[in-house]
Amino acid sequence: MQLPIDYTLTDGCITFYIYDDRIEIVSPGKLPFPLTVEKLGIDIVPRHRNKKICRILEKTKYMEHIGTGITRMRHEMHEFNLPEPEFINEHYFKVILRGPNGKLILPKNIKQHIKSNDLNLNNRQITALEKMFSENINFSHKSYSEFFDISSTTSKRDLSELLEKELIYRKKIKNSYCYFI
Predict the structure, then answer these.
(1) Cα separations (Å) of 75 from 46, 67, 69, 79?
(2) Which domain holds residue 59?
(3) Is 0.85 surpassed by the pTM of this model?
């Protein structure tokens, strides 16, 4: 027997809290029965609190398939080496998405921020970080070498220094490493 979903929280609304290291999404009420935090992304029968919203969103590019959101969220967080999403199911349902290296909100003028932190970066590294932040691009050793017209050795040294200072992270894709913010 399926228990009815509790919609008695009429004064509540979904809220987003954006902090410098995480985003928290809080929805009034608990998960629909019989769903539990442990079953999220595993239970193949989707449960929805608001079927009308789901019907609207499934007709847009924002919802690929009903019931795949949690699995896709976990996959995307893993793909970008981000911590697993956290789920809390108490008198409300909360999702916490943490940012890379404990940061989510980046300064508007990254060049000024990097210089003010006295990290002893060279101009190439500063330019590369600006490009990575503003244009959401990544570099491989080869693309970094070509972009700055430098040797492969210099490229590896620059990117390794940024990696050591935890300003970027690297991920192996096929046979080479790519560097991301």
Answers:
(1) 18, 14, 10, 6
(2) 15-102
(3) no
